[in-house]
## 1
Amino acid sequence: MLRDGAMRGKTIIVTGGGTGLGKSITRYLLQLGANVTICSRRQAVLDETARELMSEPDRPADAGEVLAIQCDVRNPAEIEQVISQTIEKFGKIDGLLNNSAGNFISPTERLSYKAFDTIVDIVLRGTYYFTLAVGKYWIENSIPGVVLNISTTYASTGSGYVVPSAVAKGGALIMTKSLAAEWGKYGIRLNAIAPGPFPTKGAWDRLFPEPLASVMDPTKRIPLKRVGEHGELANLAAYLLSDYSGFITGETVTIDGGEVLAAGEFNHLEQVSSEQWDMIEQSIKQANRASKKEGQ
Ligand SMILES: CCCCCCCCC/C=C/C(=O)SCCNC(=O)CCNC(=O)[C@H](O)C(C)(C)COP(=O)(O)OP(=O)(O)OC[C@H]1O[C@@H](n2cnc3c(N)ncnc32)[C@H](O)[C@@H]1OP(=O)(O)O
Ligand SMILES: NC(=O)C1=CN([C@@H]2O[C@H](COP(=O)(O)OP(=O)(O)OC[C@H]3O[C@@H](n4cnc5c(N)ncnc54)[C@H](OP(=O)(O)O)[C@@H]3O)[C@@H](O)[C@H]2O)C=CC1
């Protein structure tokens, strides 16, 4: 979507950039000329992704470079290492994509305290630790910056069976708005993306495992009748991390094919056939005529 070289000279940190959506966004940022630090718990996964992204056949000559650093986002010392190594390698940091997450479906009453903590710590604590660390660096050095948080649609609606994730994503979303208000004066913007279903191994293994996958079609409840494509999310993420979105802050952009609209009172009427609509129309018009007569 963005023109070639649109992110040249920018350095972005992508948490969870070794897999799934973080990897797809990293690929696009590199193509647009950004340097990208990817970080997560598994160094071997990060190294393999870095190797793959640096040797892609269609990699433009002026594509950015990737740096892979092990980091558990629950550990501030490791986050500070990522920041200092990124500055050492690329000179500065312009953007942070908080994309790391942990999640699984479960009836909430089956969760141990530790299970709940694990999800909240990765998603909420990890997001505010990283944002705080990078934000302090930007403010101390008078550098304008941009934070993009990968949220979910249920951060606003709530959802059963993923309650720790909903609690944590909801908290991160309100942090996005709160800090957008507070740090705007430093030239720091914060936005969020709320994606619907985008197939990744990490999400599908934990949110759509067998036997659900055999009996449920997640596209049925999506008005556009399909799941998202990684390129569609990468386009939006690159735009929100770029200077082209320079007047957007505190915003959450939903990208879900309309799935979140499912609450609409009458949406289920798509099951009504054309013949049934003929009958319904006649019935309503008859009621209209009757009520007019009553008024005469
Ligand atoms: C429609 C299509 C989709 C559509 C999807 C569309 C919307 C999706 C929106 C959001 C999507 C995402 O976030 S997708 C992101 C998915 N990706 C990931 O989750 C990647 C990272 N995940 C992980 O590493 C693991 O899954 C995770 C458990 C979170 C962390 O692993 P750890 O090794 O740190 O932790 P563990 O020691 O294994 O587990 C910690 C505790 O959690 C408990 N635990 C783990 N799994 C459990 C389970 N299934 N049920 C109960 N409890 C569980 C353990 O027993 C431990 O508690 P004790 O027994 O008490 O010790
Ligand atoms: N796929 C989808 O349909 C949707 C996804 N999302 C969101 O998109 C983002 C990416 O998810 P997706 O690509 O699907 O799934 P992935 O499982 O591929 O991505 C999650 C990433 O988080 C990293 N991670 C997990 N725990 C930690 C930790 N403690 N410290 C650092 N990194 C960690 C993982 O790497 P490692 O294991 O090496 O640490 C992994 O790279 C998440 O924020 C998710 O909530 C939102 C809505 C829908």
## 2
Amino acid sequence: MATSGYSSIENGYRGIREEYPAAIFGQGVNKSYGRGKNKLSVLQDLNMNVPRGAIYGLLGPSGCGKTTLLRCIVGRLNYDSGHLIVLGDHPGARGHGIPGSMVGYMPQETALFNEMTIGETLSYFGRIHAMTSDGIKKRTDFLLEFLTLPKPNRLIKELSGGQKRRVSFSVALLHEPELLILDEPTVGVDPLLRERIWKHLLSISQSSGQKTTIIITTHYIEEARQANRVGLMRSGRLLAEEAPDTLLHQHHKDSLESVFLELCREDKNEENTDNMTINKKDQKPDCIHNDDDEPLLDAGLNESIIYPDAAPRKSTDSSSGDHGDGVCNCCVKCFRPRNILAQMIKNFTLMKRNIGFLLFEFMLPAIQIVLFCLCIGRDPYDLQFGVVNMDTLGLGGDLLTYLDSEVVHQVNYSSLDAGLDSVKAGQTWGTIYINQNFTFAIIDRFAKGANASNTTLDESTVKLYLDMTNQQIALIIQEKVAQAFQDFSSTLLIKFHQNPAIAQVPIKLESPVYGSNTPSFTNFMAPGVIISITFFLATGLTTLSFVLEKKEGLLDRSLAAGMTSVEIMLAHVMTQLVVMAVQVAILLVCALLIFHVPYEGPLIWVIVLVLLQGFCGMALGMIFSSICDNENSAIQCALGSVYPMLLLSGIIWPVEAIPIWMRYISYSLPMTYAADALRCVLSRGWDITMMPVWRGYLATMGWSLGLLLIAAIILRIKQ
Ligand SMILES: Nc1ncnc2c1ncn2[C@@H]1O[C@H](COP(=O)(O)OP(=O)(O)OP(=O)(O)O)[C@@H](O)[C@H]1O
């Protein structure tokens, strides 16, 4: 009966949760990595039964899927199909303590914060598990002594490999969880201590108060003889699951290693004779026992539940509901302050440990704005400029004295060819040529005015031969020569009792509506630079800190301890906000007070907008770090975003110069309207009531929330 197959399974599980004392019950669990051609089936129709209070030795060759299975059990990995019940519910089910405080997980990698001390590490995990300070201290004292660890103030990075593994072990034991998942806890531990560890595991699994269930993987197969039950795993399946002595007896062997070898050989033979990967009959454990060695089939479970060959297994796919979801479904909504606090304390501890880097973080925006104010927007000076003055009568020489000597450094040449050669050789930025009849011609020009001949006009004109490859320098030389000519002409006209205004261009700049008559490029760029420094620093630092957290299983371990990625993200945001507040304060002091970037509008709107932009940058950093698994790709993402955004946001050059179709892209970026808004506040003195200003705020807040939401969703999916 196909329909009753599914419902009987569901009913059966209800029964398991309520009645059956198994700590872990897995049935038909499948898990694969990758897709399509790259799909790798790691767990294949795996059945498992771990009684409460048992020590379960999970043995198998490297790569057979032990870690994958353990990660499914602690809820850090979703399985594809099948059923897995851990301490009465599916890992990650709503309100279940797995992942969380019901489990103590020691992953294979050390997964510790190198810059923290042993004591700080234990306190961090203790806080996540809602332990009191007193409780943490008592457990710390016990664990340090029991695992012969150094003093609690020793940094993790200063410990030996074996000591680090023992600290990692102590983290799993700290909160005395109901379930201990230990991935190779005895590697690098001396035999005496290994014996003590096993004694301790036996005592906590047998203590009448709290029967701790322990799953342990080990490479020392014989060590597992002390376990109550061993599971021999090969190619994602359990070949056998029995008490060690029973296995030895059944196979007439004197070591587990020999038993395992024999089982592997049999399994291989079966594979060869029949191409099927799993012989379900063999997969069926010979005998599944509970604590009291009572066969499971007699313990109230009907056979169709455990071996539902007749039942449609697909219908039990974990993706079809809450089952096997692997994480708490409500993690976006229900973040716990204690977890955020624990994470923040840890973040600040790590910062304190690396005080040099923290100071550098504080000073980085200041260094950037100082460099910007010193290097960008000022007039170039001391420019080598060739002079070919063929006029011997004096006025040509007079004209040259009006050239700004700070900007233009005159180098005399005897002929036009020599002057041009100096430009071609890159020795000068250009050459000015003054005709030999210049004095006569310029007097004639002013005397005759409109009646002057073309020859007079030509001979009174100075000629410039410029290197136009550098627009800024070429423009400044043109401007200085034009200014010198105007000043020279005015003086000459006064000498001839004529109105000097004749020499002026007939355009008059009245006092400006906003800004000054001598605008500077620095003032145009400064708002965008302040915004972009804050934005990109926040992006970079958030990306880095979050990716480092992910590294070496650190994030994984915190998540297995019950933190949610949203809590970790919020804690990072709050920690970074403190750092950013200091950065923004230093940045604005440098820009506004030291380099006198004008600020006409209310300072509060400047500060708030810059902080919001930093927040927006942080949210982008969250996305990068949630997408990327290592620092290299995260840093590449962060760096790769800098130039396109900088160029498109109207920070270096006005948006009005961008082709129309690209402007839409430009306006849709997070910094464009914000930079414009800040410019309006700083230069025009506008406040939030003006549209370009509130538009900048609105765009920034919209982007921040949008990015944060995307980051949370990605993290949620990846979690
Ligand atoms: N994230 C992953 N993506 C793709 N393949 C993976 C991933 N994690 C593990 N695997 C592959 O899954 C298989 C089982 O890996 P797993 O770590 O579970 O083995 P294991 O039995 O714990 O090995 P060991 O004893 O060496 O730790 C291996 O072939 C491994 O390469």
